[in-house]
Design goal:
There is one protein chain. By secondary structure, the protein is of the alpha/beta class. The protein folds into two domains: 154 residues, P-loop containing nucleotide triphosphate hydrolases (Rossmann fold); 175 residues, Glutathione S-transferase Yfyf (Class Pi), Chain A, domain 2 (Up-down Bundle). It has ten helices and 14 strands. Strands 2-1-4-5-6-7 form a six-stranded antiparallel beta sheet, covered by helices on one side. The radius of gyration is 22 Å and the shape is globular. The two termini are 21 Å apart.
Length: 345
């Protein structure tokens, strides 16, 4: 469990130390008081930026370096610094500089809750893909690198396709990138299907919140891939559709365009369910994220809840807080919602 947090030159904070951190922590202050920056600092320690901003944007104005540190109940000290001038991160565990992998393995994982997640099923498929990829990056230390390599190979393949379409490259040049693409795409699917199967098997448990009004809830992953033979399936499809890819000058299917949907009694959640029902299912999906992350890492994740409670009615608040009571939690709010550890900035 985290027991203290220290920030130096981070966003609006010159230096801030939070001691006596407990299991449930409410960061309470008025709007515009930088509450979310505390959660942002914690999320960066687990490579899971709350806002998605580039890391240089977290350095305090007129400064070059920020420093974030937390101490645990096991007497470990985990810290991250970033030098804007050198564009370099430093990972530190118990006073020693370590590799990114050792740093990631040493620390906790975090699961982020923010109001935007309530729109998960209404916004673009890219948000839903990011949702899956964030869970997998949290759960498997190597996944982030696999995803990064996949995106680079995809970009290179698309560039060669464009060159072929413009008669600047020979058709044979695509074979090199096809081989690499098939390899990385297959790895991405290997991880994704583990998560997909977990969601498929667990999502129906959310039925308990619908008082018998709904009979079935199904999680459906939308893809062209045949899971039984992923690598062969991708290879065959690419070979058969290479002329189409050249004309389009891009790779139009596979992990970067897949999507998922949730069906309530056979009908898409977004086209049928009420806002209340949609919130219930999405909250359950996020709660499953906690369970999956803990199951894969053998560590209880830290929960970062950014002003989400204002989006929930009393029934959802009660459901939510009962499910998260076994995890250390940091909650930003403008109101004191219940008697726990109150941190005033």
């Amino acid at each position: 469990m985290i027991e203290s947090i220290k920030l130096v030159n981070f966003r609006n904070f010159h230096e801030k130390k939070l001691d006596s951190i407990q299991e449930k922590n409410f960061i309470v202050w008025e709007n515009g008081a930088w509450k979310t920056n505390i959660l942002e600092a914690l999320s960066l320690l687990w490579n899971n930026s709350l806002s998605g901003l580039q890391i240089e944007n977290f350095v305090k104005k007129w400064e070059n370096i920020f420093y974030i540190e937390y101490q645990t109940s096991e007497w470990d000290t985990v810290a991250l610094s970033y030098d804007k001038e050198k564009k370099k991160k430093n990972y530190i565990v118990n006073g020693k500089h370590v590799s990114k992998k050792k740093f990631t393995d040493a620390g906790y994982k975090c699961v982020v809750f923010s109001p935007i997640i309530m729109n998960l099923m209404y916004l673009s498929p890219s948000l839903r893909r990011d949702f899956l990829d964030t869970i997998l990056s949290n759960s498997y230390s190597e996944y982030s690198n696999v995803l990064k390599e996949y995106k680079k190979i995809l970009s290179s393949r698309n560039k060669v396709l464009k060159n072929i379409s413009e008669w600047q490259s020979k058709k044979e040049e695509i074979l090199f990138w096809d081989t690499k693409f098939i390899e990385k795409a297959s790895k991405i699917y290997g991880y994704r299907f583990k998560l997909i199967h977990f969601f498929e098997s667990q999502i129906s448990q959310s039925l308990e919140y619908f008082n018998g009004k709904i009979e079935n809830i199904d999680f459906i992953y939308k893809t062209k891939i045949d899971e039984e033979n992923i690598e062969k399936n991708i290879s065959s499809y690419i070979t058969e559709n290479i002329e189409r890819d050249i004309i389009l000058a891009k790779t139009p299917i596979w992990p970067h365009v897949d999507d998922f949907d949730i069906y309530v009694d056979g009908i898409s959640l977004t086209s049928y369910a009420s806002r209340w029902e949609t919130k219930s299912v999405i909250l359950w999906l996020k709660l499953l994220e906690i369970v999956f992350t803990e199951k894969m890492t053998w560590k209880k994740p830290i929960l970062l809840i950014d002003d989400l409670l204002s989006e929930l009615d009393d029934v959802h608040k009660d459901m939510f807080t009962k499910k998260i009571k076994y995890y250390q939690t940091f909650i930003t709010s403008i109101h004191i919602w219940e008697e726990n550890n109150i941190i005033k900035l």
